[in-house]
Amino acid sequence: MPExxxxxxxxxxxxxxxxFKRSFPRPRVSLKLRGQKAGVAHLDENLLRxxxxxxxxxxxxxxxxxxxxxxxxxxxxxxxxPRIKPHGEEWQLIMRGVYELPPNRCHNYAIKRRSxxxxxxxxxxxxxxxxxxxxxxxxxxxxxxxxxCKATLVFTGQQSRE
Length: 162
What we know:
alpha+beta, Zincin-like, 2 domains, 3-stranded mixed beta sheet, 3-stranded antiparallel beta sheet, elongated, SprT_Zn_ribbon, SprT protein, SprT-like_domain
């Protein structure tokens, strides 16, 4: 696990402890997050998960903003309980007051999207691209109908990559 990431998590906790004049239990940290999210805080498990790929590609902003963002979720949960909104005023207070960072809900890192297979279905009046999941449901007997002509949608045998 990258040491700078652990160092930043610890620094965020020390800042919060100095600000609130109390201690907080340290979370487990995992780098097994994939996809579009940069980080996730699992509140009841006291666990932080980070996206290693996005960390590598955006390390400076990731360390400054994303790590503080996720730590702030855990701190807010421990201070104010489970009924607060994820990006509500308590979380925003921690982002602004403790970390002096903007309380941005989302990152703007470039995401490499993987290609997706679409399965072409057809009725009497138009074509419908189905996801792999929906295509599999048809294979298990589910039927889909066109809202316009009311005909059953039928797989054409054609696929495309997006």
